[in-house]
Design brief:
By secondary structure, the protein is an alpha/beta fold. It has a 7-stranded parallel β-sheet with strand order 3-4-2-5-6-1-7, with helices on both faces. A 7-stranded parallel β-sheet has the order 10-11-9-12-13-8-14, sandwiched between helices. The protein starts with 10 loop residues before the first helix and ends with a strand. Keywords: ATP-binding, Cytoplasm, Helicase, Hydrolase, Nucleotide-binding. One of its GO terms (cellular component) is cytosol.
Length: about 475
């Protein structure tokens, strides 16, 4: 079996991977890392959870020279959530080389980000809008940027960012190396690749191998007028720990969210028309386990990486088989099983057949019955996109008070990174991060609280030495 050492990585990068418990490359990493190390442009088609952040992040860290105090690499992401997640991972991969990774995204003070860029910034991870803003202010200069990554390119298309992406690419050197990663490859994304990538190597991970083995898949034949009533029945019978209900439109998302609330369910809606603050609130509530049911559009739910999601319900049949696989990949994660239920109207048999042909199996008719409890399975030897050793996110939680806040230049991503890197916790075991003016809060599993306090106490972040204590209930 291939190891990371077999891929020709340097000693500092191999040590960083050992630090976080990476043992063997995932398929996307095994296929993408060698051509990227050789300087080729690449098109990677892979779902979230396949290990694509490490696939582009590891070669990126090999490329960057920490002695050159200029921006040498840029990673574009469609959302701030993905921006923070990628930043955390890249900081881990580059820890042994002393590489400075700066996150820039909307909803945070731009002056703080400008100061971080002035102080260094070998690698910049940013949302499209904030990167454009910093470029227009000459706070971000790409003259020395030789490595550009477009992460979740299809979501950038869905959000209307492609024109700005092209402007950013035009602002970087024509001799750059470019990596484009996307779960799906619609025509506009293919056209973008043809215009801006030079003789790219294409790497594709077969989608069904990522999800089908861990997700039980069902169909419900239902009339359009009866779908809402049927959804309430399915949720009552399945009793999910957490469920994502996917719909096609923002209007349907709001309507269905209100309908389920009227039936007494604890539910929130997530779609692109919400403000960033509203989206953050919904995401934190869902990830923290305070909301069991999330009604969401495809764009809003991209990048959701929450291991406690037990069910996915396709209230509207997905627009394509690839989207179907991407949706049901929100459950059955981190060695757990999951259940997916798809509502099918009589006029949608052709879409159903396309999905079944794509995944190589027929969906089972759903009927009320005994609920199958999602249970952990034997840990897999291959670790993917997580920058730290996984701890289960079950059981009681303890809130910790941290003696630094916004006034000290602390950001949520910095706090998450400090806890994960010092205490070895996975992102799913770090919840409810709140950075206030002078201090911050973060919740961790109660059984890990003492160890986290010992590990993080005295650690320096953004020039502030942290003091940590448990908040008494």
């Amino acid at each position: 079996m291939t190891s990371f050492a077999d891929l020709g990585l340097s000693a500092p990068i191999l040590r960083a991977l050992e630090d976080v418990g990476y043992e063997q490359p995932s398929p996307i990493q095994e296929q993408a890392i060698p051509p990227l190390l050789k300087g080729h442009d690449i098109i990677g088609q892979a779902q979230t959870g396949s290990g694509k952040t490490a696939a582009f992040g590891i070669p990126l860290m090999e490329y960057v020279d920490p002695e050159i105090r200029e921006t040498q690499a840029l990673v574009l992401t469609p959302t701030r959530e993905l921006c923070i997640q990628v930043t955390q991972a890249l900081r881990t991969y580059g820890a042994r080389k002393g590489i400075d990774v700066v996150a820039v995204f909307g909803g945070a003070p731009i002056r703080t980000q400008q100061a971080q860029l002035r102080a260094g910034g070998h690698v910049v991870v940013g949302t499209v809008g904030r990167v454009m803003d910093l470029l227009s202010r000459a706070s971000l200069v790409l003259h020395s940027c030789r490595y550009v990554v477009l992460d979740e390119a299809d979501e950038m298309l869905d959000l209307g960012f492609i024109e700005d992406v092209e402007k950013i690419l035009a602002s970087s050197p024509s001799s750059r190396q470019t990596a484009l990663f996307s779960a799906t490859m619609p025509p506009p994304i293919r056209a973008l690749a043809e215009r801006y990538l030079y003789d790219p190597v294409t790497v594709k991970v077969v989608t069904q191998t990522l999800t089908v083995d861990t997700v039980e898949q069902f169909r419900v034949e239902v009339a359009a007028s009866d779908k809402a009533v049927k959804l309430a029945e399915v949720l009552a019978q399945e009793r999910p720990t957490q469920a994502i209900v996917f719909v096609r439109t923002k209007i349907r998302c709001d309507q269905l969210g209100r309908l389920l609330k009227d039936k007494g369910m604890n539910v929130r809606a997530l779609h692109g028309d919400l403000s960033q603050g509203q989206r953050d609130g919904v995401m934190l509530a869902f990830k923290g386990g305070r909301v069991p049911i999330l009604v969401a559009t495809d764009v809003a739910a991209r990048g959701l990486d929450i291991s406690t999601v037990t069910h996915v319900v396709n209230f509207d049949v997905p627009a394509s088989p690839d989207v179907y696989v991407h949706r049901i990949g929100r459950t059955g994660r981190v060695g757990r099983s999951g259940r997916a239920v798809t509502f099918v109207e009589s006029r949608q048999q052709r879409e159903l057949e396309a999905i079944e042909q794509h995944i190589g199996m027929a969906l089972t008719p759903w009927a009320p019955g005994v609920r199958v409890e999602p249970a952990p399975v034997t840990e897999r030897p291959r670790r993917h996109d997580k920058p730290k050793i996984t701890r289960t996110g079950e059981g009681p939680w303890t809130t910790l008070l941290v003696s630094a806040g916004r006034a000290d230049g602390l950001e949520p991503a910095d706090l998450v990174h400090a806890v994960s890197s010092q205490a070895g916790l996975d992102g799913e075991a770090i919840r409810d991060v709140r950075v206030l003016e002078r201090f911050s809060f973060v919740s961790v599993p109660a059984r890990e609280a003492g160890r986290v306090i010992s590990a993080v106490e005295g650690h320096e972040v953004a020039g502030a030495r942290l003091a940590v204590e448990a908040v008494q209930a």
